[in-house]
Amino acid sequence: MRARLVKTILVLLFLSLFGILEASTISCRNEEGEDVDWFIFYKVPKGQDKEGGETGLEYLYLDSTIRRWRQSEQLMNTNRSVLGRTLQQLYEAYGSKTNNTAYLVYNDGVPKSMNYSRKYGHTKGLLLWNRIQGFWLIHSIPGFPPIPEEGYDYPSSGRRNGQSGICITFKYNQYEAIDSQLLVCNPNIYSCSIPAIFHQELVHMPHLCARSSSAKIPGRHLTTLQSAQGQNFLHFAKSDSFLDDIFAAWMAQQLKTHLLTETWQRKKQELPSNCSLPYHVYNIKAIKLSRQSHFSSSQDHAKWCISQRGTKNRWTCIGDLNRSPYQASRSGGFICTQNRYIYQAFQRLVFYYEDCDWAL
């Protein structure tokens, strides 16, 4: 009788502990609210044709459980969107006021402000984690997201142009490497909470949060990160002392591949395609959504690149910086993967790109 009672108590304790761990799991989430290892979104620009019906809130979606872009049935400004579902965990953590969850929100374009400080990196993102795991969302949307106490919303300024982003779920043992990458990127943090239980392993984030960092920042740093389900990623981080185009001077040469780059092509603020180094960098000039629909890079605030078709190394990178002479002196980074479904999805978006002969 006693043995049965002890066994019952142990089972109940195990189930209770399992329930606590399950409840505390932080992850990227799909539109159904289910955990995924990673997801990517591509918000399309607001339609220039009034009859087209595009509101600037529609987006394409890809995650670790599917193989091709999917047109979302949700709009980006609803809490049922992939960003709304994922960020709900931030609002829950903020509301609970617990000391076992940390978050860090950054953007060079702070919400409700028109000031863009060059003191910080040209970076936009959000991290939320506990001592089990968390996620890192990297995106291109100025003024997003609002501070946690205001809940979810999508800025009206983010509708006009295309936007992109990637969310990756990481076990806690990856956050020490992320901590070092953030130091190099020097993000403009406008909301954060990092309880003392994290300070021993994560030495830079608390100082970045308090805007008191005095650590020596390397010119650039490359690290390998592994998602919660074992997908490998490379993260490139450059500081403002690395005075060059991150694509041509570093990424293409490091990855040993010609790159097709899609970044915001503002007039008189773009760099031409570059074929002066062993591995070339070409500017994508237009994106196709379908055979009948495409848009110009001048309408696209997204920031990504892929290996040129036919090359051996098939890389896809998503991140922070534009190909612009003004951003050669800005800090920021890109996270890269050789996942073939991600590569194929982005390769299908390329309508045409600028060759070096054309650039001349």
UniProtKB/TrEMBL annotation:
Subcellular location: Lysosome
Membrane-traversing stretches: none
GO terms for MF: deoxyribonuclease II activity
InterPro entries given in the database record: DNase_II
EC numbers for this chain: 3.1.22.1
Endpoints of the signal sequence: 1-23
Domain of life: Eukaryota
EC class: hydrolase
Swiss-Prot/TrEMBL GO biological process terms: apoptotic DNA fragmentation
Cellular component terms per the entry's GO annotation: lysosome
Keywords of the record: Endonuclease, Glycoprotein, Hydrolase, Lysosome, Nuclease, Signal
Catalyzed reaction equations: Endonucleolytic cleavage to nucleoside 3'-phosphates and 3'-phosphooligonucleotide end-products
Function of the molecule: Hydrolyzes DNA under acidic conditions. Does not require divalent cations for activity. Participates in the degradation of nuclear DNA during lens cell differentiation.
Family: Belongs to the DNase II family.
Protein name, as recorded: Deoxyribonuclease-2-beta
Species of origin: Dipodomys ordii (Ord's kangaroo rat)
